[in-house]
Design brief:
42% of the residues lie in helices and 17% in strands. The protein is of the alpha/beta class and 209 residues long. β2 and β3 form a beta hairpin. α2 packs across α3 and α7 runs parallel beside α8.
């Protein structure tokens, strides 16, 4: 009986990948970053604690499902995909309203925590990731450090929109290279400019007059 309890207390990396809908490589990255708790057997195999997997799944349970956003397609007429990470529900609504009026068509999803964003990114990165830095539990700093080594970020442009100044960001250890930092209030004109550059570069669908 005790053996049965032990078996249910952990998952292999492949089982974890199946439960989360991500690759085995992503699971290994998350273990190394501390996002998932795990240990190694005498033979060197990782065993992921089931409670840490369930905790991650609980964090995303109430978030929107967006397979069309997260799954990259080789369709030249697809829309720009945007993932927004912001814990203020009023700002998420503002993003939604503004992006719906952009001159380029896009599919956007907003999530209110870094765990949901990591899981979505683990299933395939969007064209544009817009994130705040100040969030409860795992903040934007921690999320971006986890994502920095993720293969899913190869074709994703990351933009930080924050109320923190450069000195405050530096005091928190800074950000990975290649990330543009914009100050709040949200500069939607600049975000549209960035989004348009991505759409043109990737030959994505553009609105016609």
């Amino acid at each position: 009986m005790s053996s049965e309890v032990i078996e249910k207390s952990f998952c292999t990396t492949r089982e974890t990948a199946t439960l989360l809908g991500v690759s085995v490589g992503t699971v290994q990255l998350w273990v190394e970053s501390g996002l998932l708790r795990a240990w190694k057997t005498a033979g060197g195999h990782r065993r992921v604690m089931r409670d840490s997997v369930e905790r991650l799944l609980r964090k995303v349970a109430d978030q929107p499902a967006a397979p069309s956003l997260i799954e990259r397609q080789s369709n030249p007429s697809r829309k720009l995909s945007v993932l927004i990470v912001e814990d203020d529900p009023n700002l998420l609504r503002l993003y939604d309203a503004q992006l719906s009026n952009w001159s380029i068509p896009c599919e956007s999803v907003g999530v209110d925590n870094a765990f949901a964003a990591l899981l979505m990114m683990g299933r395939g990165g969007p064209d544009l990731l817009i994130t705040d830095l100040h969030m409860p539990e795992m903040d934007g700093f921690g999320m971006l450090r986890v994502l920095h080594k993720a293969p899913e970020l190869t074709n994703t442009t990351i933009v930080v929109v924050t109320g923190l100044d450069s000195a405050a960001i530096a005091a928190r250890g800074g950000l990975p290279p290649g990330i543009e930092v914009l100050s709040k209030p949200i500069p939607f004109d600049r975000l549209l400019q960035i989004a348009t550059e991505i759409a043109v570069k990737n030959n994505l669908l553009l609105k016609t007059a």
